[in-house]
Each structure stands twice: as structure tokens, then as C-alpha cells.
Amino acid sequence: MGSDRHVALTEADYVRLLVHGTTAFELVRSGLELGIFEHLENAGGLDARRLAEAIGLAVQPARIMLLGLCALRLIDKRGDVYVNADMTRRKLLRGSPRFLGPLVDVQARVINQAMPDLAEAVRRNTNVGLRHLPGPGTTLYERLTAYPGLQQVFYANMGDASHKASRQLLQRYDFSGVRHAIDVGGGDGTNAIELARRYPHLTVTVFDQDSVVRLAADRITDPDLRRRVHFHPGDILTDPLPAGADAILVFHIFEIWSLQRNTELLRACHAALPDGGVCLIYNFVSDDEGTGSMSAGLVSPYFLTLASGEGMAYSAADMEQAALNAGFSQAQRYEDMGFSHALVVAHR
Ligand SMILES: C[S@@+](CC[C@H](N)C(=O)[O-])C[C@H]1O[C@@H](n2cnc3c(N)ncnc32)[C@H](O)[C@@H]1O
Hints:
Blueprint: H1 11-19, H2 21-34, H3 36-43, H4 48-55, H5 59-71, E1 75-78, E2 81-84, H6 86-91, H7 101-111, H8 118-124, H9 140-144, H10 148-172, E3 180-184, H11 190-198, E4 203-208, H12 210-219, H13 223-228, E5 229-233, E6 247-251, H14 259-272, E7 278-284, H15 294-307, H16 316-325, E8 330-334, E9 341-347
Parallel strand pairs: 3-4, 3-6, 4-5, 6-7
Antiparallel strand pairs: 1-2, 7-9, 8-9
The structure holds S-adenosylmethionine (SAM).
């Protein structure tokens, strides 16, 4: 469901953007940190001197920020006055439902420091970028448990991304026939909470690392949700799945692991379900040719370099095949889900 709006760039400028990508990212991140977009919006546009005064900056650095943000097409200039471009209003203002601030934060604080290790990660076929977060465990998820500030930044983005993506999921799949769902690697409980809110008969069990299920539990104050959203701490790859569910959710998990490990995980899901039970696999995907989307191409190196050392945005065909290889009798694909996501519903 990508936007059909276009930004026209010459090939030379496109290549410049690639080569100076770190500077482009810092212009956006610093623009957010300094509140430039909010100031321009609240004032209905400002000239450079007034913007500098409003933020408490010298005029010269304010001009440098405005020049960079205009070159990136995030700000327009009308006479002497700078105003936000429409895409900035949609994506870079805090009140916008499509605000990208949590993604910018996780890139800046967790991901970007590891990405210069990509070539070494490709050569060694493992997540060498983890060296930036020393501690126990071989995945980013385990390492983050020792860095509560960064863990919070990670789940602020993960929860935000899941919240945006789950609207599409809830439009496409009807959970009325499900009684109890296990949310494998359910994170901060965003999906479990949304599902339990939407379906008042549903019980959801979040199965994730101990420190993560505690984060999720702390978010729930509503007594009805507390009664129906349960927490099961453990290792999703080695511990038995909680029993008694008729649906298993595998959301933003398949992209973390190798196809072999995913097939083993789905085999465990198959074994934990009764006949007629379903396993829902929902995450970022690439197209079947392995040539896009832009998000699939840009998120996959992160899984290799930092997150796990083995995952990527697979195609929906890969997800379907893994479900069948794990023993599910049939699998349906839903590919046009928006946000470069696909859903595979595997039936036991
Ligand atoms: C990318 S997040 C997805 C969170 C959630 N499913 C969502 O869609 O928002 C992956 C989650 O898997 C959990 N996870 C990864 N490996 C795990 C393991 N071996 N045992 C338990 N949880 C694990 C992480 O703690 C993290 O919360």
C-alpha cells in the first residue's frame, strides 16, 4: 500500500543522497531534536532569523539546517519564509498518526552504530555488529535486556510499528473464531492488547523473554485486559510453547531467523495446536523476485549485522513454504497488507 506520491531527483542527486546518507539522516534527526518542524508548523512558517530566535540558535547554524532540509525537500521556502513540506507534516510532526520519530530514535541509538559492520557481517555470516552492545546473549534482543534505556527505545519503535501495521491485519483477519491465542515473541504486548481490546471474548498469552513480558505487563491497567492478557516468560526457541491455545501468532519473528530455524519454530507451533488450529505469520516481506520493496531492502541488513545474524525480509512464498514444511496442511497468503507486510495463515 505504498504512497504513490513521488519526490523527483536527478540521478546525480540520488547518488549524492546515498553517499551522504549519514548527513541526510542527521539533518532529519537533528531537525526533530531541535524542534524545527514543530516551530515552523506552530508559527505557520518563519524566516531564518525568527526560527533561530525561537529555538535559541545563532543565525548561521539555523541557515545551515534550513538549507539542508530544503535540499532534502522536507522544507519549502516561500519568499523569506520557510514552511514544512506536506510529507514533513505527515511524517515528522509529533501529533501526526504517521510520525516517524520512534523509528528515527531506534536508528540513531541502537542500529546505526552497528551498520558499518555490514561488510564484515556479510563475510562472516554473523551479527558482528553486536560488539557495540557488550553483554550476555547472541542476539540484539538478549543484549538489550542489559540496557533498559535502549530496550525502551527499541520497544517504543517496535510497538509503534506494530500498532500501525496491526490495523491492516485486523481488517483482513477475523479473530471471532479464536478463543485463546499465544503471541510468540509478543514483545511489549502491543498486538496482544489491540487484539484483546477488539475481541472481548479473546484470551492472549504473550510468550517472550522475562524482562520483556514484565514491560508488557506493566502497560496494562484495565482490569478486564489484565484478566485476559497473560504472560509466559521463556525462550521461544527452546522452551515448550504454553498449552491450550487454538491460534498462535508469529508476528515480526519470521524475519529474525534463518528459514531452517523458522521451520523448526513453526513445527513447535504445529505440535502445540489442536486439529483445526491456526498459526498466523505476519511480518515484513520482500517481493517474490527478491528485488524490493525499499523497506525490505533496507531492513534486511539490520537482521544480519545486528539483530540475529541470520534473518532477512523473506518473501511470502518463503513463509508459506516454511509453514507447509513444518507440517501445516494448508496455508493462505495475504500479500497486499500495506507497510511491506504479508500474512500467511497456516492451518493444522
Ligand atoms: C521484532 S520483536 C517483535 C515483537 C512483537 N511480536 C511485535 O510484532 O511487535 C521480536 C521479539 O521476539 C523476542 N525474542 C527473540 N528471541 C527470543 C527468544 N529466544 N526467546 C524469547 N523471546 C525472543 C524479543 O524479545 C522481541 O520482543
